From TrEMBL:
It is a peripheral membrane protein. It is found in: Mitochondrion inner membrane. InterPro entries: SAM-dependent_MTases_sf, UbiE/COQ5_MeTrFase, UbiE/COQ5_MeTrFase_CS. Methyltransferase required for the conversion of 2-polyprenyl-6-methoxy-1,4-benzoquinol (DDMQH2) to 2-polyprenyl-3-methyl-6-methoxy-1,4-benzoquinol (DMQH2). It is an enzyme of class 2 (transferase). Pathway: Cofactor biosynthesis; ubiquinone biosynthesis. One of its GO terms (biological process) is methylation. Its EC number is 2.1.1.201. This is 2-methoxy-6-polyprenyl-1,4-benzoquinol methylase, mitochondrial. Component of a multi-subunit COQ enzyme complex, composed of at least COQ3, COQ4, COQ5, COQ6, COQ7 and COQ9. Interacts with PYURF; the interaction is direct, stabilizes COQ5 protein and associates PYURF with COQ enzyme complex. It comes from Adineta steineri.
Length: 304
């Protein structure tokens, strides 16, 4: 009934309802706080700059360590193909991209040697002022691209890629998920894991995903979500509020960042609402799968 009712609302009304990170006064959610839209990204950058070195540990605390199983399952759903152009957004530490490449190598052992390696971007011999954003857009130089707005997160990912001997197979891009620098229809698969809830305008992120995907391309999002069992939700909420921020203080000397991360989960759209937002951005065959009773969820949609 909820979905049928929403489907009768025009697209602009729907986005107005579901744009939970925006209000008519140009403010947005930063956890439970309302802040000016132009301040949120700065605050989010400060959070992730603070937790970059302990990002996996942070996810361990927030998910009881189960996030590693969720991510493995996520990549199995992707089913990597050596012919695809793949992009992982908000993936600065490389966690999802590394899994993608390792899964690719598992089923296509010759892929590592047959796929062109990442190249350095061509530096123009002269500068000019572009007449439009389209003129400044680029094409990927690798079949595996990691994009993130936070340079500290990217620095962690780049070092990890060297440690895992994957550095020459990934193109790293520092960019905003709401305005990707790539030309239209460049990628076969777009993933974003535990990142979209930190973006200022969720609908713009999904619309950008649609723009850069090829026809037939797939959007996949793994994100903390809403527990669908009342009793379990109560216990998880109590755990989140009373245990995670103090652990952040003990482990990383950072209470506020962990407090924000918990609050950001609470204000993120519920599973059905987020599925409707994805549909409103023109994706088709949209569905979602709850993981661990809805502690997290995988949303999927196709560009047709």
């Amino acid at each position: 009934m909820f979905i049928r009712t929403l489907s009768s609302i025009n697209r602009f009304s729907l986005l107005s309802i579901l744009r939970t990170h925006s209000t008519t006064s140009n403010t947005t959610h930063f956890g439970f706080d309302e802040v000016p839209e132009n301040e949120k990204q700065t605050r989010v950058n400060e959070v992730f700059s603070s937790v970059a070195d302990s990002y996996d540990l942070m996810n361990d605390i927030m998910s009881f360590g189960i996030h590693r199983i969720w991510k493995d399952h996520f990549i199995r759903i992707v089913r990597p193909d050596p012919q695809w152009n793949y992009i992982d957004v908000a993936g600065g530490t490389g966690d999802i991209a590394f899994r993608y490449l390792k899964e690719l190598d598992r089923y296509y052992p010759s892929a590592a040697s047959s796929i062109p390696l990442s190249e350095s971007p061509i530096t123009p011999t002269h500068t000019y002022i572009a007449d439009s954003l389209e003129q400044t857009r680029i094409r990927p130089t690798s079949k595996c691209v990691v994009a993130d707005i936070n340079p500290n997160m990217l620095a962690v990912g780049k070092q990890r890629s060297i440690d895992n001997n994957l550095h020459n197979r990934i193109q790293w891009i520092e960019t905003n998920a709401e305005e990707l620098p790539f030309e239209d229809e460049q990628f076969d698969v777009y993933t974003i894991a535990f990142g979209i809830r930190n973006c200022t305008h969720i609908d713009r992120v999904v619309s950008e995903a649609y723009r850069v995907l090829k026809k037939g391309g797939r959007f996949l999002c793994l994100e903390f979500s809403q527990v669908n069992n009342t009793l379990l939700r109560y216990f998880y909420d109590q755990y989140s509020k009373t245990f995670i921020p103090p652990m952040g203080q003990i482990i990383a000397n950072d209470w506020k960042s962990y407090q924000y991360l918990i609050e950001s989960i609470r204000v993120f759209p519920k599973q059905k609402e987020f599925a409707e937002l994805i549909r409103s951005c023109n994706f088709r065959y949209v569905n979602y799968e709850n993981l661990s009773f809805g502690v997290s969820a995988i949303h999927s949609g196709y560009k047709l």
